[in-house]
Amino acid sequence: MIVINILKYGLFLVFSKTIILLFVFSSFANADNQIKILMLGDSLTQGYGLTEKNGLVPALQRWLSINNVEVLLINGGVSGNTTLGGAEQLDWLLSPDINGVVVALGGNDLLRGFDPEFTKNNLEKIFRNLKSNGITSTLVGTISPLNYGPQFKREFDEIYPTLAKKYNLYYIDSFFSPLIDKKTRKISVNLLQADGIHPNEEGIETIVNYIGPVIKNFSQSLSQ
Length: 224
Fold this sequence. Notes:
Blueprint: E1 3-5, H1 17-27, E2 35-41, H2 43-46, H3 56-66, E3 71-77, H4 83-93, E4 100-104, H5 107-111, H6 116-132, E5 136-140, H7 150-166, E6 170-172, H8 201-222
Helix pairs in contact: 3-8, 4-6, 6-7
């Protein structure tokens, strides 16, 4: 089982592009015939606050392996990443043998209060880029709280299903949907780390069990 975290050490790797690509290409040498999926995201994708083996991408890799899905997941998560960062990083993350991309960005746009139109435009850039390269993708949505008002929430929440339909994407509503307590309708604190933002190990397993079937179908479609 191989999980490649090409952005493990954060944004400073933007300045080490050549080293990263050499590492990625050499890592792929023994997996030429394997389906490869880039996980493009932020700290949740990266595995913030968890040991490497318990992060989202390794946990999802294990789930897929148990369910007989032969695929290599590449961890492109960067702590603090925004949709703009993802759009700017995409070109040099797309090695020629990437078969698919899972895009999970927007949480940090929300935290910074970016205009929904800004987020939408950046995501559009990502999916136009992927489409022009003939790469199939999955979009993971982000749901806005009411902190910025109902109009902001409505505009932001509409971004993801609208783009999923426009670009014919595989779609997951949110990583956090399975963490919501049905009684309180709030995210269960028992599934979060002490910061109250990032999932703990149990939270990650809950997320993986929720998104696994979609990623399985996505992975299998890439081999057809």
